[in-house]
Amino acid sequence: MIKEKENIEKDKAAKTKKQDPIIVIKDLHKTFGKDNKVLQGVNLTVNKGEDLVILGRSGSGKSVTIKCIVGLIEPDQGEIKVFDENVLNLTKPELNEIRVRIGFLFQSGALYDSMSVRENLAFTLKKHKRDLSAEEVESEVMEALDNVGLSDAIDKMPSELSGGMQKRIGLARTLILKPEIILYDEPTTGLDTITSREISELILDIKHKRKTTSIIITHDMACAKLTADRIMVLKDGVIHAEGTYEELEKDEDEWVRSFFQ
Length: 261
Fold this sequence. Notes:
Blueprint: H1 2-18, E1 21-32, E2 36-47, E3 51-56, H2 62-69, E4 77-82, E5 85-86, H3 92-100, E6 102-105, H4 117-128, H5 134-147, H6 163-175, E7 181-185, H7 193-210, E8 213-217, H8 221-227, E9 230-235, E10 238-243, H9 245-249, H10 254-257
Parallel strand pairs: 3-8, 3-9, 6-7, 7-8
Antiparallel strand pairs: 1-2, 1-4, 4-5, 9-10
């Protein structure tokens, strides 16, 4: 009986931990120009350790939402809490402290063309951790590259890398600061089916190894199916539907189901 009670308490604790919100967005609005209302009251919560996929047609505000989270775009209205901090009220130094804990993988990988892979990663690391020795920087660079399976590309230039390799290096550069949250903006765009799956599996592997929390913006339904703990669908500037891949695939709403066909 005592053991059974202990198991119940453990289950409760596990559920509580699972529902521990790390990102909370309330009533987020953003309009560009006079009447291009992209976000019209987005509400979402991402729990610690969760991979949330956001789907939506082009221009629906998916990328705008995650750029608001890190302060790359300033919303017109709403609240964004990350690590229990309202990022919209933070000073620039305070926002930079939050940003170091959040990795952002851009669609292009955003590598510096004039720098080698080693220099790209080292530059990012030294910018935020100035007290590291040359040996420590080298060790961190090698570890990050090892995590994405590209240690042998350390001295290559971005122009020498395939699209898939550039994505992996971009991810390594994101991982080098050991972020707690990673925001993926179309991580498999422009890649062939096999490479797309490799990137999706890498996202899943990073989650399990690093215990990260992620938001993944994607049009790639294979990526969504493989990585998502939960999916939200944006339509007309608001969250239109929410559920697991399997739940939304069978949703009564024909528009929602259209993503899964």
